User: Which sequence fits this backbone?
């Protein structure tokens, strides 16, 4: 049992795509874990006990048996996937996975995920969505459509944590008000990922 | 010469902290490169020739001698630093570097860097800064102050690409309108990083 394969505690909200990324990665790799539910809508991540483990005050986070903690969904997925089929061993291919992971957090999640949360959980009408976020979300989904028109998965012709990270909120893009019928390659990829993940 | 040590082309804007992260990392590691200036303010990253290399349409990006391209500043730094003193070899320590890299792009750069650009390059008065970005930037700098009150560098008691990534825009935080006099530990860390980087 290497340290990435020991029982861990997953702190997070299972309605959150960021938390689900970690759960799916752990499930696919057979990493055992227990879940401690953290309700992000109730400021649970800003409480002193949580901040003592995760100073950034965000979920998800994992705690190893010896008490070491790690936050940031994509950093956790990368840590768990290191040395497995979900992250290429070749440095440049791994870097291409990183490229999509950073893009997801900077150019996708702040638009697609934030709009999904607004619509699904905060009662924002589609017509009242933040127009800047809509525009940026459209750009992100357009880039995915172009990229996936020439390949089945994002990197190295195989399913990796780049796909897991991007699947987490792209599957909710239609609910967030984006037209996915005009993005058939993204739709096909969502189905391929769904079968891998079982979601 | 491993592939990370071959002559590369760096596409970027040397006024941009994101581009400087890559330049500094290459300089510290002795990776040879030539620079192709990309003026982000002139939409250079949205031109077809640029998009053919870097579909995400962002700078910086690097091109290897065989034509392979990689974007996202923190992904590039991680790729260059892999196997060197700038990125710990231990998987958990490397994951803690990743944690800060993702935090930087999600919770620091969109506030501190965007406000710096607004003030320094777009003529926005300090009193007219976006209040949401100010609040989030204050939170990010407060977290850095607390973290650095107990250590000299962000991860593993040594200078890593986590420090390089966070240095890039934190050094402009005062120019962006943040009060750094009340953050002496960040100021001390900026000086330590500046000596390492020569910036």
Assistant:
């Amino acid at each position: 049992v290497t340290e990435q394969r020991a029982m861990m505690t997953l702190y997070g909200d299972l309605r959150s795509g960021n938390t689900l990324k970690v759960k799916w990665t752990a499930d696919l790799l057979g990493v055992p874990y227990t879940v401690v539910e953290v309700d992000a809508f109730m400021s649970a991540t800003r409480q002193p006990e949580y901040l003592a483990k995760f100073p950034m005050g965000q979920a998800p986070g994992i705690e190893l048996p010896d008490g070491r903690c790690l936050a940031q969904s994509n950093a956790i997925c990368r840590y768990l996937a290191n040395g497995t089929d979900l992250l290429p061993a070749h440095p440049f291919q791994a870097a291409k996975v990183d490229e999509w992971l950073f893009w997801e957090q900077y150019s996708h999640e702040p638009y697609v995920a934030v709009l999904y949360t607004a619509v699904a959980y905060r009662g924002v009408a589609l017509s009242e969505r933040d127009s800047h976020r809509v525009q940026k979300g459209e750009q992100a989904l357009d880039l995915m459509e172009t990229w996936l028109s020439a390949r089945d998965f994002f990197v190295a012709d195989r399913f990796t944590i780049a796909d897991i990270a991007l699947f987490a909120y792209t599957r909710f893009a239609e609910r967030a008000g984006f037209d996915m019928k005009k993005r058939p390659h993204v739709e096909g990829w969502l189905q391929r990922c769904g079968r891998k993940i079982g979601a």
Observations:
- The beta strands of chain A are 8-12, 33-37, 61-63, 69-71.
- The interface with chain B takes residues 3-4, 55-58, 64, 68, 70-76, 78-79, 82, 91-92, 94-96, 98-99, 101-103, 105-107, 109-110, 143, 146-147 of chain A (CB under 8 Å).
